[in-house]
Design a protein that fits this description.
Helix content is 21%, strand content 24%. It is α+β, with helices and mostly antiparallel strands. Strand 12 and strand 13 (171-177) form a beta hairpin.
Length: 730
Amino acid sequence: MRAAPALDDDERQRLLAGAHHDPHALLGAHPVRGGALFRALRPYARSVTVTAAGLRARLHADGDGLFSGVLPLQEIPDYRLLVAYEDNEVEVHDPYRFLPTLGGLDLHLIGEGRHEELWRALGAHPMRHQGVAGTRFTVWAPDARGVRVTGDFSYWDGSAFPMRSLGGNGLWELFLPGVGEGALYKFQITRPDGSHTLRADPMARRTECPPATASVVHSSHHRWRDDAWLARRADLRVHESPFSVYEVHLPSWRPGLTYRQLAEQLPAYVRDLGFTHVELMPVAEHPFGGSWGYQVTGFYAPTARLGTPDDFKYLIDALHQAGIGVLVDWVPAHFPKDAWALAEFDGRPLYEPADPLRAAHPDWGTLEFDYGRTEVRNFLVANAVYWCEEFHIDGLRVDAVASMLYLDYSREPGQWTPNAHGGRENLDAVAFLQEMNATVYRRCPGVVTIAEESTAWDGVTRATHHVGPSGFGGLGFGLKWNMGWMHDSLGYVAHEPVHRKYHHHEMTFSMVYAYSENYVLPISHDEVVHGKGALVSKMPGDWWQQRANHRAYLGFMWAHPGKQLLFMGQEFAQGAEWSESHGPDWWLLDPSYSAEADHRGVRDLVRDLNRGYAATPSLWQRDTDPEGFAWVDGDGYEDNVFAFLRFDAEGTPLLAISNFSPVVRHEYRIGVPGEVPEWREVLNTDDRRYGGSGVTNPEPLKSEPTAWHGRPASLLPVLPPLATIWLRPA
């Protein structure tokens, strides 16, 4: 062996400083005149020896952890490095003898911002490469002077494994042989100013459990058993199907349970209550539990607080096998500023806009995404697809859409910059949402996207290629939360019955715009925290009246056009606000508790509402068709009475009547269609088994030829106090 030529001083310094774009050009084995040059970077090693069949040669120590030598070989063998440290000796493959692991198509699609399976290209992937087992690490950091991968496999020494730049698209790559599943890792990035920052992988599919912040090398081994569910889902027309949602915060539903333990309890509970779907508050990894998951740092990793990604798949699989669809809250509106995560990832604004006025989210102290940057948009669009394809998620509820759509959202004059047309609309965010929805609907049959959007933006649930009066194509969502209905209806029921007649329009106004979008009626976690009180606690009166109001409201809600969503704990009239620290007050359902029957009765009503709803196409088949609804009495403000009809595709009606006054109304005349001779009561929220007073209509009600409410016939039902009844043709 002879000594290798010394490295150029500049290249040596850049390599040692983690600022070299092509370490493979310096390290590894390279043919030279008279043999093969071997060079290795092994900090803290006492010696490095090249070994191969019939070969064992110790390299010269060049200082700073560099070892080199030229061997008189005609070709480079399949070699290994024998690295000796103070207390041990290891034989390893040389990472710098391997070709790049990403192909030309991947690089092209990433460069175009059109890689719809981005998670398969970036991040950490255990694999066999050139016949050797290891892990491919890839990261996007276009402003970095250099990137190195570090982890428990290098004792968190950041200097050992510099990555190579793959062309001009900002990608850095390194295949590390011998590193496998479960390894902890991060990227050490050399910023443009030469300083270093240690970052978690934005594409990590698994993370350490917070407050630890390392990424974890992961491969999935879950074997899905929900083929029948997915096939059935693909044929489902969501807008013409039952859709009632139980919203859950997984860490606090039953505090202390893992994903797999939840799989033993949650599906059975939801199925028993008759909900068609669960909606999970954000499950993507987040550092602060008190954010409830709405400040995400690991967009591709289910939170490790409850188990592994395969454990989460096990839970979804169990829900599907129980016939329950799974929606998840997805948060592309912002991300936190943690120094180990996305903020100024490679030393400059990358995922966030460069303009500080656009980058800072004024409400939550977080940063907004730069939706106009193709790579950032690709990161988010692929993320939406990832949850649907990798985890078989049935729907994405997109959080805080309004804050994305408006440049002046929560900003004062002078704190925002208009768009190219001088307007307040965030054109980049609009384009992103349209692309995300179009991509998800194209790739994932049966998946639905749902917007939490609180403004009057035109066309949230309109197809992206249909241009509306505002000049924009639709955003392409399948459903939208009806925040107006939620606000108005909760305002109405919070009033004492004697005052409700002055607020009657708050319960009827929703029908003015009910068919402008495809709506979900949400009583979500947002309505039962931060001093707002639980649903039953919003109601006036004594405990009996509060529960009666609660039951009547749910009966009205389930009959109203739109899909239903109810947050956990409200199904049994929990009186206390929700807290993520302890979750629902399950003790209220303990038979030893004196008022247990009061709470169990409300839960029994929710079960019957869901079952009656699912069995009655009139309540969901024409949810988005104005012909599926008709007021009977929308002006009964003096009596606090609302009555309306719902119709299925065949014209079969259901009559819903709500009496939001605390008095019984005997023989209260209600107009009905003339072709139905007899009606029977199929649900009454005042039934004794729900905790009511038992004022019911046990016998069929005969239609009389007395015209009323503009209809040719009428009924004379008794209306229970603070109650909703449903009637169907006998």
